[in-house]
Sequence to fold (305 residues):
Amino acid sequence: MSFSDTRLRVFHAVAKHLSFTRAAEELYLTQPAVTFQIRQLEEHFNTRLFDRHHNRISLTDAGEAVFSYAERILDLYREAEKAISEMTGETRGIIKLGASTTIGEYLLPPILSGYHENFPKVQIRLSIDNTRLVVRKLEDATIDMGMVEGPVSNKNISTAPCLEDELVVVIPPGHPFASLDEIPLAKLKEYPFVSREEGSGTRMVISEHLSKAGLSYDHLDMILELGTTESVKAAVEGGVGFSILSSVALRKELQLQSLVVRRVKGIRFRRLLNFIYQKQKFRSKAVEEFLNYAKLRCQSLHANV
Fold:
């Protein structure tokens, strides 16, 4: 007797996350569909694979055994797909990609477009979150690889540079900072500041550079905290306050002259935008081709950033 590939993948996702909801999100299924597949699998084995207690679940001993086999079987599926695609010369499959906000909104679109032209049979599922969430998704294998703005400390995750980015002070044309060639560090505390949210790679980089220069991020007059770069730009354009954002994200506004940028005297907010992937995890041919293609595109984009 055998069980379907769908049930195996659904079980693996639920067991990995210990969550029906997160498994449904990863597999693009409804939660009732996930519950149905698990129930069918438990009926097939005639045993419970999960213990349910209130709003939490855990694997039974039988569930642990099935999970171990499921990981090995799914790895063999991926290896088989890669071997056959290499024999036929065809790259196909699905890439689950995670990107932090600045990269996902401003850097990735031309890379994804070019990759699709070269590999039309590969489907990319992109999720955009802050750096902290992208790293978390990579850690629990919800995504195959990521691109992030902030530093990554997990020893099981490898990083590869894409390009160097600089953050700059962003203001509307009439702001007092606009009359300065460079802004003295102490003056940053004197005006309202619009910040990205906790966990943002942009915020981590700013905080680190300011701290090294002797100014705590907490000493800025933060009057607004927002979850996307677009919302921060809109607030700055509206005169709410100044911010510090990636130069990658400001091309349109600088061309339209709706925003002005300045640098802080004695500080350069530089950072690397990085690819991240698990060191030991098997990578499909589609993922390897994407990583190679994206690295080449980053080199060509570097001169324009």
Q: What stands out?
A: The first strand starts at residue 50 and ends at 53. The radius of gyration is 23 Å. The CA atoms of residues 230 and 249 lie 9 Å apart.
